[in-house]
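User: Hey, quick favor. My workstation is busy. Could you predict this chain's structure for me?
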Amino acid sequence: MYGVKERTLEFEESISKMHLQFDGYIYDSLSYALDSHLDYQEMAGEGHAQTMLMGMNPGPYGMVQTGVPFGDIPTVRDFLKIRPVTGHPGKEHPARPVMGFSCKRTEVSGQRIWGFLRSLYPDRDELFSHFTIQNYCPLAFLDSGRTARNITPDRLTKHDLSLITALCDEYIKDIMMILEIHTAVGVGIFAFERLTECAPSGVRILRMMHPSPANPQANRCFVPESEALFRREGLL
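Assistant: No problem, here it is.
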């Protein structure tokens, strides 16, 4: 049966063959963290959720470390109970090593979005019967500077972004069709805009605020605003 696993393996093969101009470090989470990611996809898919939340790409202390979209370590280790990442990118910035569950930094965005969903559905299986979370792009981009600054896909060159969107648009479209998604929620502006381009016909597209600590609004009211949106749109 052709499902999420098979499509993800095809996607990773295509991603690995891209020739990007980005002059920095590229962490391909579907390469070094593939087993953990597929564990997550299998678990999430068993819930047959009809609503998908989609982020942009891996955060340095979330999916980069765990292989799970928005996957802050306590959520992945203690709630999802997914195996730890043991692999490493081919080229690793010394300031941003992949340490798996040993990483001491916190992925605030993941902590917020998974914390919000867990407050609604404390049981893992029940949560996945309502929602699944995906990321648009599996690549993290770090500059070559001392602090390895995170570069989001929307800040890449036109050349690189066009290559990424060509592959990621088709992948996300296929995933939504395989999972039979009815509603797709873009987490932040970039994700929402990509959904408007790649979602299959008939899928309802919504936008929620990004939970990043760099977003002042999220620091003030991420949970109440998100819950109000979900209730208003009939997702709860």
